[in-house]
Amino acid sequence: MTSKARTIKVAVVIKPGEDGYYIAEIPSLPGCISQGKTKEEALANIKEAAQLCLDCQKEEGWIIPGECSVENVEVRLK
């Protein structure tokens, strides 16, 4: 019996790296980090990395996370 494939949306954090590349990370998938020369390339690379992470987690019997969102909070710098 084959399981039905599903699609989930995951939050991606993108920030500039020290070397001029963009770093992309998915907080809900610990260790799922990638990079790219542009934001677009970083997003394409993190999508591929996320698929690999999820495939490995599924094979190992992990609970696959559901969709999540990211909220911004304002903090005051002293």
What's the arrangement of secondary structure elements?
Blueprint: E1 13-16, E2 22-25, E3 33-36, H1 39-59
Antiparallel strand pairs: 1-2, 2-3
How does this model look, in words?
The protein is built from one helix and three strands, in the order E-E-E-H. It is α+β, with helices and mostly antiparallel strands and 78 residues long. It has a domain of 47 residues. The chain has a three-stranded antiparallel β-sheet with strand order 1-2-3, covered by helices on one side. The longest helix is centred in the middle third of the chain and has 21 residues. The radius of gyration is 15 Å and the shape is globular. The chain starts with 12 loop residues before the first strand and ends in a 19-residue tail after the last helix. The mean pLDDT is 89.
Please give the radius of gyration in angstroms. 15 Å
Number of strands: 3
Elements, N to C (H/E) = EEEH
Report the total helices: 1
Q: Name the strands of the widest sheet in spatial order.
A: 1-2-3
Terminal residue distance: 59 Å
Q: Major β-sheet, in short?
A: 3 strands, antiparallel
* Strand-residue proportion: 15-25%
Residue share in helix:
25-40%
Kindly name the structural category: alpha+beta
**Outline type:** globular
Uncertain spans, ≥5 residues at pLDDT below 50?
none
Mean pLDDT: 89
Task: Describe the structure concisely.
This protein has 78 residues and is α+β, with helices and mostly antiparallel strands.
